Amino acid sequence: MSDDATYLENMPSLVIVTGMSGAGRTEAMHVFEDLGYFCVDNLPSSLIGSLVDLDGVMRADDGPSKRRLAVVCDARNRDFFGSLSSALDDLSARGVEYTVLFLDADDEKLVSRYKSSRRRHPMCEEGTTIGQGIQRERRLLMDLRDAADHVIDTTDMLPQKLRTTIRELFGTGNERKGLAVTVYSFGFKHGAPLDADLVMDVRFLPNPYYDPQLRPLTGLDAPVRDFVMFRDETTEFLKAWKGLLDVVMPGYVAEGKQQLAIAVGCTGGQHRSVALAEATGDYLKSRGYRVSVAHRDLKLAERAGK
What we know:
By secondary structure, this protein is an alpha/beta fold. The chain has helices at residues 3-9, 25-34, 48-55, 80-93, 107-117, 130-147, 159-170, 222-229, 232-254, 272-286, 298-304, and strands at 14-19, 38-40, 69-72, 99-104, 150-153, 180-187, 198-201, 259-266, 290-295.
């Protein structure tokens, strides 16, 4: 089984996100989207079973699911309080695995958030205050909160902390797998990369192009790879490059970054950058990251020469 398959296999099949209005459900759904879940917001709880049937969520006695689902059910739907418990009981009876995530915050913080957003609280009726609506919602949700698998109090949480907490709970325990890394080679003569987060210029290394036997080959061929890799200059460079990656990569993970592009460039994108992009990808894989390697200008470089 591939690393990506294992990563997804270990995640819950169905997550039901609920809790107090204003406690961070929108931010939570962004995290689940980044984790590879198919997300549905504001779904009536009576329709959860139908969605499960449609999408083939994993059952306890069946094989792998077609995809992971994250569903927000909350007070915006009028049937929420009366039917969510029944919907969960129905899922259990049918052998559907699910996890309930309850988001909460204290009343003062929720009032502050609603005032700053200028949105109407879903439990506020004509003539009631935001605080009264929050208190009513809290009473109705008390039993659901007690029964939830995970409760996150977002009172003092910045969005970054909430993202980190959800990834720790649902990202299989390996946060590095939540960061999708693309390493690609390119040639400066064909244009600088536009989408890279990190760019490494390796044109300072000796160029295999000037060896007539190596010129038509690429960094994917062993003779070129050996020419590039087994040099004192490359050894020193890789030592420093790997040290830099060991510093910045955990920082990207801690900041909640979900996609990262690393570009390695030489003159034509055929020899040095290709070999070193492959080496960079192998190193990051050995450090537990999900990595794909591509070569932007390899075909161009083969036609254009240098």
